[in-house]
Amino acid sequence: MEAPATSTSMASVTGAGGFLASWLVKLLRSSPPAATPSAAPSEITVCGSKNAHLMELEGAGERLRLVKVDILDYSSVALAVAGCEGVFHVASPVPSGPCPNPEADIIAPAVTGTLNVLKACYEAKVKRVVVEFGWYFLSKTLVEHEEAVENRFENFVDVRDVADALLLAYENPKASGRYLCISTLISVSDIINILKTLYPAYNYPKNFVEVGNIVTCNTEKLEKLGWSFRPMKETLRDSVESYRALGGMLN
Question: Which stretches make up the NAD-dependent epimerase/dehydratase domain (predicted)?
Answer without folding.
Answer: 13-130
